[in-house]
């Protein structure tokens, strides 16, 4: 059953990518005032990074299992794993953006300046870059899967874009955990 028109996969990928990244950049740039999100107790805001670290670890597992299952030909399990991964990604991003807007900006790095410049910033920059680059690949692979029946999906670039998206996702989530550990574990 076709859920997305085949002719609309590329334009929808572009639109979803631009809108998603615009929301992220607006939140990160302080363009969304805190008054547009409901107030939350400080304890909830403090819990979000820890919850997001668990979401990231879980997503690493679901992406890895989805990749494993498709290599074994277990398409139903692959589909569930990858849709779960997307749901985890959306949950992570929603919580991250909520905290970012509610607190008025990113959390300052509490460690030494040398670690900040030579470890934290490069890891954070690569994490963010990969997350940004991943978005259109991710949308394209998902929309192809929604637009084609399984027997025709093999004739599309779904597998190629899916491998790229999964690789970028895995690295980005892993680096996000490193960022979390630097902010909340080491310092």
TrEMBL record:
InterPro entries to which the protein is assigned, alphabetical: DUF420
Membrane-crossing segments per the record: 12-30, 50-68, 80-98, 118-143, 164-183
Domain of life of the source: Archaea
Alphabetic keyword roster: Membrane, Transmembrane, Transmembrane helix
Protein name (database record): DUF420 domain-containing protein
Source organism of the structure: Halostagnicola larsenii XH-48
